[in-house]
Write a structure and sequence with these properties.
The complex is a heterodimer. Chain A is of the alpha/beta class. Chain A contains 18 helices and 13 strands. The longest helix of chain A has 22 residues. Chain B has a four-stranded antiparallel β-barrel with strand order 2-3-5-6. The chains are: A alpha/beta, B alpha+beta.
Chain lengths: ~475, ~110
């Protein structure tokens, strides 16, 4: 590795401490455990404070829509008495077009309060648009660092659109070719500018999503008399699942939390060649699995987004199923929206089919669509990059090689990802990141159980299994 | 006459490119295809001098940073689009609306 990269990484702790506006060291309890609730509460804002911050920022209070046509479509092929009611929270109605405005609004509020001149975020997704928009409203400078192109300077149309919208909101967009060294360049920029690191994974950002779970619990209660029985959340880095579930809990809901991702298994996330063979830039297993099984891989010392703590099920769907549902949503419900929320929608259609009619399934987000992000643009781009697109059984899809568009809606079948396997993987990662020879204490076991949404006994079994393996 | 795309004058909105890391200096845990390429960065800003495409130039970005690189484009635009409808999807709206109508007719019997 270059001397330059080594030099900046050696100063990571010092740069991030200043850039994050808080010291994570005070929450560490051991080489494994930390005080998660302490970290989440350290900003001192109550849920009502955050609702107030977001109201002032033009964020939240998005429409909750019942999808009656989609529900009847599912009932037309579900078994007798089956076909849950499907709802969607139209988060595309936020200023920059997605739920990410909730996440950005709190970080931008903190940046302004603490007197930072600007903010920096590393993201190729909607979060960049949200940070840029909120920064513009707060009269703060903004740099968005994006992995945007392969080495031929060919960009995913979805990411090019994200570059455009960030620039439309006055951000400086730093576009990079494929590679994880993006992080060290972000450190250089934080060091050079002194801006706040508006990390996706900070407690500020994740707390900002709690209002989404809280809102939808209240709104569903007003419409149906109770919070939803199921909420489906598109899952990538974990913030969406974490924040939504925490908000639902605050509202007293006992809703089942179902995370959903597009299956991109087999594609390497750091591969220059594979970069443009993905038709989804987020909400896929390439982020969803590694972040759930090792959240602290994020750009903060401890990730506030800890999806495994909250998910009751993890469903995967194929790219073709999501494109089909995207088209169906526009034609049946008058909602032309982007791929992110429609990933959860595809999973929700599969889930609703297997649930009784009195169950309620809420897809908790939509995102804006448009040139580049649109499913036609994505399918055309896939074809141009040698990916086969055809009608057929979506179960036959091979990520990066083929996209199979269902011929009929009943072919949409989400697959359950084995949570037991994810928990084992999480515990193995946690032990691997502790110093060699470190023996987990009783407190560590309790922490690992909470973090993996399981019992201490199960964690002990996993550890014993890892030792004998 | 030289087309405006081939040169910028001071103050023009332009894009520059530079090599952030040569292949030899990159992270050690990369897949082979990525490891063989330099890590490139593109930044847009206002040109601080006249220059030809391909020449070294400094720009001042939207945040006021001064960044040096090779001029790649003058007044860079966006050309991403929707493109043609996917033939695999054009029938979806017609078919699903019909399916809902048929279901409701049967359910209401």
């Amino acid at each position: 590795m270059a001397g330059r990269t080594e030099a900046i990484l050696a100063r990571k702790g010092e740069i991030m401490k200043r850039a994050l506006g808080m010291d994570y060291a005070e929450f560490e309890r051991s080489p494994i455990a930390f005080d998660y609730e302490g970290l989440m509460g350290a900003h001192g804002y109550s849920l009502q404070d955050i609702i107030g911050i977001q109201l002032a920022a033009g964020v939240g209070s998005t429409p909750l829509l019942e999808l009656r046509n989609l529900t009847d479509l599912v009932r037309s092929y579900a078994g007798p008495g089956h076909g849950a009611r499907i709802f969607v929270k139209d988060e595309a109605a936020n200023m920059a077009g997605s739920f990410k405005d909730r996440r950005a609004s709190v970080s931008i509020h903190v940046a302004k309060e603490k007197g930072y001149e600007g903010v920096i975020a590393a993201t190729s997704g909607n979060y960049g648009a949200a940070v840029s928009s909120q920064a513009a409203r707060a009269a703060l400078k903004c740099i968005i660092v994006q992995e945007a192109f392969d080495s031929r300077h060919v960009g995913q149309p979805e990411i090019i659109e994200k570059s455009r919208i960030c620039e439309a909101f006055g951000a400086e967009v730093v576009q990079l070719s494929v590679g994880p060294e993006l992080f060290s360049h972000m450190l250089e920029l934080l060091d050079e500018t002194g801006y706040l690191a508006a990390s996706l994974y900070s407690a500020f950002g994740v707390s900002g999503i709690e209002t989404l779970g809280w809102e939808l619990a209240q709104e569903m209660t007003a419409v149906t008399g109770a919070p939803p029985t199921h909420v489906v959340v598109t899952h990538a880095g974990g913030g969406n699942t974490t924040g939504t579930a925490r908000g639902l809990k605050r509202a007293g809901a006992t809703t089942e939390i179902v995370s959903a991702s597009v299956d991109l298994s087999g594609l390497h996330m750091a591969s220059d060649h594979d970069f443009n063979r993905k038709s989804f830039t987020t909400g896929h297993t390439g982020f969803g699995v590694p972040f759930a099984t090792w959240p602290d891989r994020a750009d903060v010392p401890r990730n506030a987004a800890r999806a495994l703590r909250y998910m009751d099920r993890y469903l995967t769907v194929s790219q073709g199923e999501v494109f089909y549902v995207t088209e169906a949503m526009a034609k049946l419900e008058g909602l032309e929206r982007g791929p992110s929320g429609n990933t959860a929608m595809a999973a929700a259609m599969s889930l609703a089919r297997d649930l009784p009619r009195d169950a309620t399934v809420v897809v908790q987000e939509t995102e804006y669509t448009g040139a580049g992000k649109h499913h036609w643009a994505q399918l055309n781009f896939a074809r141009e990059n040698g990916v086969e697109v055809r009608s057929g059984d979506p179960a036959d899809n091979v990520p990066g090689k083929s996209i199979i568009i269902p011929e009929r809606p009943e072919q949409i079948r989400a697959k359950d990802f084995d949570l037991g396997k994810m928990r084992r993987s999480y515990v193995r990662n946690a032990l691997a990141h502790a110093p060699e020879g470190y023996v987990p204490t009783a407190e560590d076991i309790v922490f690992l159980a909470e973090d993996a949404n399981t019992t201490p006994a199960t964690v002990e079994e996993i550890i014993a299994g890892l030792k004998s393996a | 006459m030289m087309s405006e795309a081939e040169r910028c004058t001071v103050g023009d909105w332009v894009e520059i490119e530079r090599v952030l890391l040569e292949p030899a200096d990159r992270s050690t845990n990369l897949p082979d295809d990525t490891a063989a390429q330099p890590l490139l960065v593109w930044v847009k800003g206002f040109a601080r001098a006249d220059a030809a495409v391909g020449a070294e130039l400094e720009v001042e970005t939207m945040t006021g940073r001064v960044v040096a690189g090779r001029l790649t484009e003058v007044n860079p635009g966006y050309f991403h689009t929707f493109g043609k409808p996917a033939p695999e999807l054009t029938h979806v709206g017609r078919d699903l609306r019909a399916q809902v109508v048929a279901y409701r007719a049967k359910a209401g019997e």
